[in-house]
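Action item from last meeting closed. Structure (129 res):
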């Protein structure tokens, strides 16, 4: 899986988790999607809040709706398998997101999923989640 996910928030000692825990269960992660890359179809077990730090993110939602989020905007990803979606970087600069979620220790940030009926399969050159 290509792309990068860096720790956001306060520095931690060796052996740190791949995200920063800023309060009990509240996790912040920086997610980067290179030009031409995407997240792959996926969903989340808990709602996520995201801020676009740079670039332009194009989201394709489970119902075929397309949403475009530019630098400085924010959005919420609803939880559940019925909210499968795909994030794509159709621009020429990396998309960098700051994502916050309330996760229990060991819970995955995202779960891969099949494309919804009638939706195009993910054919991105690079994927990140």
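Sequence:
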């Amino acid at each position: 899986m290509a792309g990068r996910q860096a720790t956001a928030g306060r520095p931690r000692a060796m052996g740190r988790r791949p995200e920063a825990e800023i309060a009990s269960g509240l996790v912040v992660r920086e997610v980067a999607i290179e030009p031409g890359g995407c997240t792959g179809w996926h969903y989340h077990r808990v709602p996520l809040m995201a801020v676009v730090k740079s670039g332009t993110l194009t989201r394709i939602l489970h119902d075929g709706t397309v949403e475009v989020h530019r630098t400085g905007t924010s959005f919420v990803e609803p939880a559940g398998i019925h909210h499968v979606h795909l994030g794509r970087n159709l621009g020429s600069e990396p998309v960098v997101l700051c994502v916050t979620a309330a996760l229990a220790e060991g819970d995955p940030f995202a779960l891969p999923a099949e494309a919804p009926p009638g939706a195009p399969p993910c054919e991105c050159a690079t994927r990140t989640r």
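Note appended to the action item: The mean pLDDT is 83.
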